[in-house]
Amino acid sequence: MEPLIIFGVILALALNFVNGLNDAAHSIATVVATKSLSPWRAVLLTSLCNMLGPFIFTTAVATTIGTAIIHPGSLTPISIIIAMGTAISLVFVATRAGLPISSSHAMVGGLLGAGIATSGFTAIILPGTTTFIDLGIAALIGVLVGTIVLGILTTALKGDVRLGLLIGAVCGGTLVIPVLMLAGVLKISGLLAIVLFIFISPVMGVSSAFLFNIIISHLFQHRKQNRVRRIFQPLHVIACLFQAAGHGANDGQHAVGVIAALLVSAGILTTFSIPLWVLLSSAVAIGLGTVFGGWDVVDKMAKKITRIRPYQGFSAAMAGSAVLAMVTSYGVPVSSTHVISGAIVGVGATRGKNAVQWEVVREMVTAWVITIPLALVISYTGYFVISILLKFLF
């Protein structure tokens, strides 16, 4: 294997390591906040589940990363290495700043920038016009249904009708898309799915955790707090471990997809396939990253968004796990940051809007929105800088 390819494989594993370093917060934030597990015990258990995730779930996300964003012909060893270097740098800087960032989107932005620099905008794999039309019709129907349903409910409950209409429109317009995808009516994949789920996955996390928490609160409202804690602490731990496995199956597939694409671009593999050694080494890398943990990120996720009790942590973890399992099965590389943060906001919002630290949420959302464009620009610029240096040196 050529030295350049070996270097690329090492970079891909480093990407999974910093992924685990930052994303450790997602799986252990709620279980640490509720003291259901000690921080180190939580980290060790979730790192194991992160490693097992790719073997429990599908590897569809790896295929999306390697084949459904940039045309394989536009991926060269140099462009892939530059994309990975960009993603690693962004995730590392964000971790040092204690800011949860999507390594999924950093990698996607890096691939886009390097791919465009290599072959122009034709390198991007885009869906046909029909897909956009179907998507627009589905979103419009969702907005109308959500507005009507929430409008009627808030009117009947004598709540804030204007707020109910707004929430109904937002939730209806976003949640209808994954529902239709599950039903097989709407077929969305690749880059379009990734961009859409930047907005959809947090809403799914918020709404599912909110509803889950309301149901549990209603069922156990007459039970003593100590009794509720004893019931939900072990359930919360199990839910967090399942959530960690989902994270490993989604975020943990970045390095897998990139290494496979790298081997194809170098001619080592004739078709896109995933060797077992790639899957194993990537799983170990993300597990090690989780062990070392980004504790500043954990602190922000666990303590600064909202105060969490064991049953609320269970609700957030189960909601996040369900969303991650669904999108992973469709091969959509979503940000587990978005999903889990949304779930934590959802359980906090059940106690009223003042229970959530919205300044922290706004800071995180800003980072989410700019990650892909920022990674794209850095990767695009980096490609030309590296190309000039290589020409000068060789």
Give a short summary of the structure:
With 394 residues, the chain is mainly alpha-helical. It is built from 15 helices and no strands. The chain has 2 domains: 3-127 and 189-393, no CATH class; 128-188.
Describe the fold and architecture.
There is one protein chain. The protein is mainly α and 394 residues long. It has two domains: 3-127 and 189-393, no CATH class; 128-188. Helices cover 79% and strands 0% of the residues. It is built from 15 helices and no strands. It has helices at 3-33, 39-56, 60-67, 77-96, 103-119, 129-156, 161-183, 190-219, 225-250, 253-265, 276-292, 295-304, 310-329, 336-349, 358-393. α2 (39-56) packs antiparallel against α11 (276-292) and α10 (253-265) crosses α11. The model has no long low-confidence stretch (mean pLDDT 79).
Task: Annotate the secondary structure layout.
Blueprint: H1 3-33, H2 39-56, H3 60-67, H4 77-96, H5 103-119, H6 129-156, H7 161-183, H8 190-219, H9 225-250, H10 253-265, H11 276-292, H12 295-304, H13 310-329, H14 336-349, H15 358-393
Helix pairs in contact: 1-2, 1-4, 1-9, 1-10, 1-11, 1-12, 1-13, 1-14, 2-9, 2-11, 3-10, 4-5, 4-15, 5-15, 6-7, 7-8, 8-13, 8-14, 9-13, 10-11, 13-14
Contiguous low-pLDDT stretches (5 residues minimum) are none
Shape: globular
Q: Bin the strand percentage.
A: under 5%
What distance separates the N and C termini? 21 Å
Helix content: over 70%
Task: Report the structural category.
Answer: mainly alpha
Count of spatially separate domains = 2
Largest sheet: none
DSSP, total strands: 0
Question: Topology as H/E string?
Answer: HHHHHHHHHHHHHHH
